[in-house]
Design a protein that fits this description.
alpha/beta, Rossmann fold, N-(1-d-carboxylethyl)-l-norvaline Dehydrogenase, domain 2, 13 helices
Length: 285
């Protein structure tokens, strides 16, 4: 069994609340802070120690999990007048689960380093359901020794912890993953617009997408070895294959855009895909 630690969770809403509950269930000593007294009270009834400020929650903690809304809140609860940084001793670790800008996490890490405290960016994926079940995927950036020490805590609410590299790498991985998801959502939305404008039942579109490997196709750039432009000395057979697929893709995208013009719908994501498809196929800049 892993060593039981003193852990603070700052921000115990939809994600932080289940994270704190899993830490309690694992036997860790947990102190919590949130602007919502109700959220703190709910966890206190399960054995957590409620705190009146982030600093109070962090006092004596080995690890502080920050699960707030945005960059401004992360800065406030870490380096603000009542932030956790002023209450931590050297050797403590702050894990930032909030999705923040790379510059923000690096700035916080630099400030913490002068106190002997490590800041790890530790973006999570899996939503409220994953937080509750303890099956989040946690993407971490920071020094290897700090990541190793924090991992037993992170694994309490994670199915896996991926150490992506130095400070900021975990957040870069999370942001890249999020961009993929949102762009795919936008693409599916445009497909729905196009199909419905042409009188096609959307249930049939959903069935077709489900049954024809569309989302597996979206991962094709990994198989193509990108994202860099194909080098001039690449095998001619490989270049010819890419040129063939590019021709097919551009033809199909042109036809989709022609249909959209005919039915009167605007497809900006599809237009951009058409304009940049040679880059996707590693054949243009």
């Amino acid at each position: 069994m892993s060593e039981l630690l003193k852990v603070a969770v700052v921000g115990v809403g939809r994600m932080g609340g289940p994270i704190a509950k899993n830490l309690l269930d694992a036997g860790h000593e947990v102190r919590v802070f949130d602007v919502s007294a109700e959220a703190v009270s709910a966890l206190a009834s399960n054995g957590a120690h409620g705190a009146a400020s982030p600093a109070e929650a962090a006092r004596g903690a080995d690890v502080v999990c920050v699960v707030v809304f945005d960059d401004a809140q992360a800065r406030e609860v870490i380096t603000g007048p009542e932030g956790v940084l002023g209450a931590l001793v050297p050797g403590a670790i702050i894990t930032v689960h909030t999705t923040v800008a790379i510059d923000t996490i690096r700035e916080l890490a630099d400030q913490a380093e002068s106190h002997g405290v490590a800041v790890l960016d530790a973006g999570v994926s899996g939503g409220e359901e994953g937080a509750t079940a303890g099956t989040l995927l946690t993407m971490v950036g920071g020094p290897s020794d700090a990541v190793e020490r924090a991992t037993p805590v992170l694994m309490v609410f994670s199915k896996d912890v991926i150490h992506a590299g130095g400070v900021g790498a975990g957040m870069a991985l999370k942001l890249s993953r999020n961009a993929t998801g949102y762009v795919m959502m936008a693409a599916v939305h445009e497909a729905m617009l196009l199909a419905s404008s042409a009188g096609v039942d959307l249930a049939l579109l959903r069935r077709t997408i489900d049954e024809t490997g569309v989302f597996a196709q979206a991962l094709a750039p990994f198989a193509l070895g990108g994202p860099e432009v194909l080098p001039e000395d690449a095998p001619e057979s490989f270049r010819s294959m890419l040129e063939h697929v590019r021709s097919l893709g551009e033809k199909d995208l042109d036809q989709a855009l022609d249909l959209a013009q005919h039915t009167g719908v605007d497809l900006p994501v599809t237009k951009h895909a058409r304009q940049s498809f040679d880059r996707v196929m590693r054949l243009g800049h």
